[in-house]
Amino acid sequence: MKKTLLLLLLLLALRPMVSKSQTYENDWINYGQQYFKVKVWQNGIYRISGTDLQFSGVPIGSIDPRKVQVFHNGQEEYIHLEGESDGVFNGSDFIEFFGSMNDGSMDTRLYSDSTWQPQPQYSLYTDTAVYFITWSSTTNGRRLTAVNDNNYPAYTPASYFIRESYVMQNYGYNRGMNQNSIDYTESEGWCGVFGNYQGTNFVNNVAVNTANVYSSGPNVEVNTCVGGVNNNPHNMTLVFPGTNFSDTYYMQSIRRYNFSLSPALFTSSSTTFTYNVSTPLSITEYSAFYWLSVRYPHTFDLEAASTFELFVPDDAGQTNTRMDISNFNAGTGSPILYDLTNHRRILVSPNGPGWQALVPNDGSATPKRCFLSAAGSIQNITSIKGINYVQSAFGQFNNLLNAAVDSAYIIITHRALWNQALAYKNYRNITTANRVVMVDIDELYDQFSYGIQKHPLSIRNFVRFALERWTGVGKPQHILLLGKSMSPADFRQNPTLFELCLVPSYGVPTSDMLLVTGLDGTLYEPSVPIGRICARTGNEILDYLAKVQEFEQVQSGPPQTWMKEILHFGGGNNQGQQDQLAGYLSTYEQIMEDSLYGGHVTTYLKNSNDPIVINQSDTLQAQIDNGVSIMTFFGHASGSGFDQSTDEPSEYNNQGKYPLIVANSCFAGDIHTYQKSVSEKFVLEPSKAAIAFIASVGQGIPEDLYAYSTALFQNTSRNHYGATIGQLMKYSIQDIQAPGMENIKIVCNEMSLNGDPALRLNVWTKPDYMVDGSSLRFNPAAVTTDLDTFSVVVNVRNLAKAVSDSFTVRVTRTYPDGSDSVYTFQRGNCFYNDEFSITMTTGGFSSAGLNLFRVEVDLPDSVDEYDNLTNNSATTQLFINSNDIIPVYPARFAIHPYNSVTLKASTANPLADVRTYRFEIDTIDMNLKDSIPGMQNSPLYRFTAITDSGGVLSWSPPSYILQDSVVYYWRVTNDSIDYDPVKYRWQQSSFQYIPGKSGWSQSHFHQFMADGYQNVRYDTLDRYFDFIQNNKTLRVLTKGQPGLTQTELNEIGYSLNNVPMEYNGCQVFPAVMVAVLDSITLDPWTTCAYNVGQFNTFTLTSGSCDDPVNAQGFGNCRQRAENYFIFQYGNAGQMTSLNNFLASVPDGNYIIAYSWFNTTYSTVDPNFHNAFASLNFNTAALRDNAPFIYFTRKGYSGSNQEVLGVNQTDTITFSTLLSTVWNRGYVNSSLLGPARSWESLHWNQRPVETGSSEDIVYLNVLGLNSITDAWDTLVNQLLYTPTGKDTVMNWISATTYPYLKLQTYLQDDSLRTPPQMDYWRVYYEPVPECALNPNRLYTFYNNPLQEGDTIRLQMAIDNLSNVDMDSLSVAFYRYGANRSRTDIATVKLDSLRENQYLTASIVVDSTFGLAGNNSLWIEANPYNADHQAEQYHFNNIAEVKFNVERDRVNPILDVTFDGVHILDGDIVSGKPNIIVRLHDENRFLALNDTSKFKVYLRAPGAVSNQLLSFTLPNYGQAMRFTPAVLPLNSARIDWNPVFETDGIYELEVEAADRSNNESGRYNYKISFEVINRSTITEVLNYPNPFSTSTRFVFTLTGSEIPTNMKIQIMTISGKIVREIMKEELGNIHIGRNITDYAWDGKDEFGDQLANGLYLYRVITNLNGETIEKRATDADKYFKKGWGKMYLMR
Description:
- By secondary structure, this protein is mainly β.
- It is built from 19 helices and 109 strands.
- A hairpin with a 4-residue loop joins strand 62 and strand 63.
- The two termini are 103 Å apart.
């Protein structure tokens, strides 16, 4: 039973598809023939002459006229072709046929049930029918049969024929049974109306022609059709002669009634049929009247007509019906009679003043339809148009079967847009690989809807044709309708709108979806995704195409940050609905922020009950202008906008960043109206606004819209990520559709696309992780060396596909000295962004200065990204402040050429506050002295304290003469009250004085402390260099018979210092594993370096065996070099190799052997026993199948150790400490340079042993290549000599190698006592050293700054050295709150001479947009093309932090009308001077931008505001803008409109300053009234009575003030005591006036009048005409224009 019910429901749901005609309406076309068409818009007989055919291009000279055919509605018509019998088409020949206007027969296919169609005689689209003329080469055309029988006397005249009087009404449109449904439903169509509406009864009296009734004839047949309009029960009454009928029906059901009555009841030439309702007047209830048909017997008196339709019954007693016709207006010539039923052309003969004809019987009980026409009423058709769709074949149709292409992209457009549509086609051919099929809508009319213009079946039939007949190729993928559409309910009776409808749509409400749903097995989803561009002009197509090209160019990559931004707007007319819609939007947010879209949603919710809230915040507008991919609206709407809206699309500035808009609102998608809908405004706006718009064309139900959009977003973000917009809509409908769910059907039909359906949103196939300067920030923002730790916050963005893959993030911190710290993390699930923090140790003094931070994402590539390189890393910098001071000159280890010295140090923070610093100098290492109790300073110790601000501090020790070749140590620190050198943070340096020389030297033992040592130990206290000990812990583990799990197998192996050296055994054959450790390094021998016949050989393909970690190759065990050798017991060759291998190992090396799987040792190859016997191991002690471990140092007796298992299940381990002393090592100097030129090297070392020595000592010189940034060996193995070594180095280019390092190699194989370092020196020409020196000169304006103010910075730069610098570059740049660097300028100063200074300065004109914390950086001698080598760079950089205080003060708005501040509702002039002034207190940010002003006006009767323009006329004139001129920051708008319509207007002004501070919490709103007729009210005086003075109050209307105005005051006796003229009254304006002038109660001469009653009146005129008095409530206080005033002192 359930299955049966389900099947029934399915069949019912599918009924619209299976009940409609399955033809395509083009089967009448022969594509090899030519066709010409003519139009017919009323019933009648038509003629087309041969001459007119020839003039229209019909080749009548080559046509056999007998082959001519005429087609209408797919059927060949019967015609008369005069003169065809000769087979020649002459100019005088003509085609004659009966033509019918277009009716509703084609529309029947639109109704699911044909009985639902209420108006079959009235087309939903047009009255005009099209007849097609063609000719066959083989077949004769259909012809009317000529009946020329004139034997009238043989027949008795008939008494009557049947006449049908048919009346229909079509002044209203009934939406039918379900008014929200797009599909044509029961009773939907054009109609008249009757019933009760808002307390008024509307009766519908239908008058019908019933003239010349033949009272003895058959009954009169009355048929009529009505239907419900509203939802109340309908109590219909119908009254006409002999009938008083009533019926009740419900909702929008249709009713047809028929009545049969005696003709005797119809006695008048016109009969009235009265349609009404019996429902009480208080109840609104109305119905539709469609048509009334009265068929009655009619005499042959034809009412003086020139055409007449007759229904002629057979004359039962005769073979013909004789008609004796009277009162027919035949004019000149004989009438023509057609039997339309039987396709006959019947002779009509004169009969006195009348006519006679014989109509043959046809044996049918149904009367024959005949048509009689006077010759003069035959219509001659002269407008004949050839079919012109095939360029090379005039008159022929395109056979669209041949247009099939695989997966076609179909464009349907109009001829008026053809050239621009071709441009669109050409572009889409590029993107679809030439799959575009473009068709002319006119050809679709002709081929698929019989030429009926605007009929939707033209498109629907074509789509079905393409789906079903384009076989062998993939089905069409997208359809784009290029052209404006109009609702048929709008254009049917409006010729202008009819022409404006360029490409039609379907239904009322009108939706493109119905053009393609229900085809090819679909239910509610489109068979082919469809969209429309509602272009009215070709330019609109080109504008949209430009947007599409921009959009798809951007979408093709690379991904951009805006592409995942999404805006949601929630509306609602009350709190409950607002909460409901907010919940819906929250669901969408969760979907779109998840994979695979990974969006970032910002939601704006309506929070008031106002009908419309326009959200025009500049923050929102900036978001839109910066780019968003989707904007979602959910709330109430109309075709013109939303209840929670943004700025006008024309005000957007988002070129190239066009969003898809999804509007869950009523009518927002109704693009089928004359007015430009909100959808069209967004999509058609050139170079801005939206790329596509999905919205309902009808009334939306929130729950249904929610279901649809939820599916849409799920498909967008998850299920079908990357599909086209049209496909996403199709998938979404498939997800929610179900047969019988009418509400879901409606929302699926009504959600339509304004835009190209082939567009795709964010079609990335891969993620794209991105970082930039703003991805790194610090917490706290200011870091000092006093902090133990700080945090680095990293924000990673994913610009493309949101996936869950994990990826690597590496953060590298580079300290001021160039050393690095690297932090690596694994992150994942980065859909939109991923933010995390890293805690770092500040690092003490070594971190003071400029720290660089580099973040790298997914490097090396662990995730395949869209962009794997260019956006995966970013760098920023942090200046870590310190209170320390650093020795700068002489540089560390410098050779100083003079016997006096000025010590110079730079503060780590060049902008440090004033404090005291301590300098000390001595010939001993003072830091070491502080650590050794009791150690004293030398006699050359000196110190001083200096108090100064940050920068460069200098001290020349007084009377301090340097001694030749002596090394001096000097140090600096912050001073304190209590001298405690141990607690000071000393920074120590040293130099050596050698007269006349410059360079680098380490000549004192304690100077060598700064060097790098490899296997050599620097002993501070003993002042001795020694080789270090090498200690490693060895651990071995093995098992007798291990399990075969990887975990258990991996446990077997050996390690050094808990680092596995080797594990597992790579194979399961029993074997002995042997490892050899070097006697000195304790490094294992590898299979890369040794191939001794073992099982696990290795072949090297690249790299070196000296670097086994990076050696590349392949082995038969692992694809790397291994740290053990495998010898299988069962392989005799390997056992021999084992014996030979162990014998070859040199003495002193360590040998480790252990078992791998068990074996019977007693039976293995003798070479196994011999091999270990040679090492003094007793293999006879081994237990069969038990594990063992052997360890020995070869050649060292007593070093053997062994661990033996008892049975095969044993696990055994061995551990021991290995200790050796290195016999060789290196000492690496600190960095030398940079140098301007290199001169010579001087070096000496001495052996510890006396006499001859076996020590090996040599020196390498390494140079840092400035091009490759690699260390090159410049001098290799310069050998030691007992007397030292002096080497010329001037051949080394200081340009290529500005820095050097010295490296000495020490080796002693016997006593292992390395040679001792005496000195090494390099003479060279030093480079200059510049430093920022704010304590000499520093100014900064200003902190804080007001936004918009100027930045000004000056700072001194010193040359601390004795070497001149060339022209000095200075860079200025800024970091904002987002850590992004903005370069400001790089300036070039003069050359900086030795020990001189220059001043660097910069001016930044404006700080607009910089609100918040900023830092201005100055960098002397930056690393650019002009960089000059220096000793230090830390003291070249300073960070000046400053705060720009955001302008938060609201500007002041002032609006006047004709100079007056009006009250709400005041009357103003019809031509007012409206001035809008905005004043801002900010003296720097001028009000000079019209985009900061929005002025709206709502005219009388309008439902929405109109945004006024600064460029286009608004009510006669555009607004004029006068920008502010600083420092007086006031802008002004002048507008002089002409308001021609009287009524209430509302002006709304929104204004903001340059910082987006709005002029108030709410927009300025004022309503005012315009009355264009000039009037004046009675003039009142106030106060009244008065004692000291009184003013005059009145109201003026119109657009001009009175030309003359005079107030006369007189005594009650009639004496005039005062006349007050217009000029005295002061400023007068249209509207409410209270005069500036106040009358003081004195007469013309200034004398005070007595107390009492006075009379007054006003005399006015305008341009000589008296001004009309306007009635008010105050009129009762005046008599004949005179008022009273009372003077009472």
